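Morning F.,

Quick status update on the modeling queue. The single chain you submitted on Monday has been processed. Sequence for confirmation:
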Amino acid sequence: MARGTKNTIPTVDEPGDPDSIHHDGAPYRKPVAYALVVVAIIGLVMAAVVQMRRVVDRDTLAATAGKAPKIVLVNQPAWVPVSLTNKINELVAISGSHSVYDRQLLKDVHDGLISQPEIAPWFEKVHGVRRVYRESAGDVIEVDCKFRVPVAVVQSGNGSGFWYVDSKGVVLPECFAEGDLTHVVFGQDGQTIFRIIEGVANAAPDPGMPWKGEDLRAGLELALVLSNQPCAKDVVIINVEGYAGKLGTRQPPIVLKTRYDTTVAWGHPVSGSTANFEVGAETKLARLNKLFAEYGRIDAKRQWVDIRMDKVLYRKDMEPQTTQTAEGSGTNIPARAGTILRASQTSAR
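Structure tokens below.
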């Protein structure tokens, strides 16, 4: 061996494995270098993310200037009252601005939507809450939810007011006085939006709770059946005070009060309208639509119409432009919502 030549002794990690033989550990240097590069890149990315968040937060604070983000309800129905949207936006009506990354704010909004008694009953389910960009970063909070839809305005059995109620009988947190009903029942074009159900025996429970009573159930069932019928525009009140014979066996269980303050005897509930030799609900609806097509009104311009039996019966002719009060209508069925009927007569003309 030549002078000055250094002997290199190979090392073996596992005897008999030629792949494990190396000289002075040189093959280990490349993996270590790669690892250091990866760590450096990750560090740079994390630093960039942190800086980006700082820039977004700074821009958000500058753009919002202390304003709370606005809450937007996805697919909001046209009937949603302004009072509800105001209450929802109060959930984030706080001083100062929050980071767009502040998930606690979203959690607070979600919890408020499902827990506050003036808001929660409106929602059957809240699917999600997220912060989005509209005019500036995070200036809007979107709420994806399923609403409880009111199908009627029901007068409480104790006369305490009129409440929105959905198809399942759940009371919604919106109560009206009789004098406010005109703007609730009729749209700007004068068409009937919601029908009033009056004559229920039980008082309204707390909002969010189901309103018990077979009379109310029968009224809601009829309101749903009428909702997509041409004749429905004339029906203002569904009176269930005669339900289960409460007014005697000679009085119809359910009567309809029209926008002309006239009466249509409907009879038994939709699900039991063939009782006592009555025709079925489909026949009754067909008769109402036929009268509406022929006369332009479901009352055929009479004070009282009975559609229950094998033929339509009338009581007492009536001039189209002359109306009578409920007390002079020739029926013992009270109409306690006289204000809305008088308003509907004016609209009809």
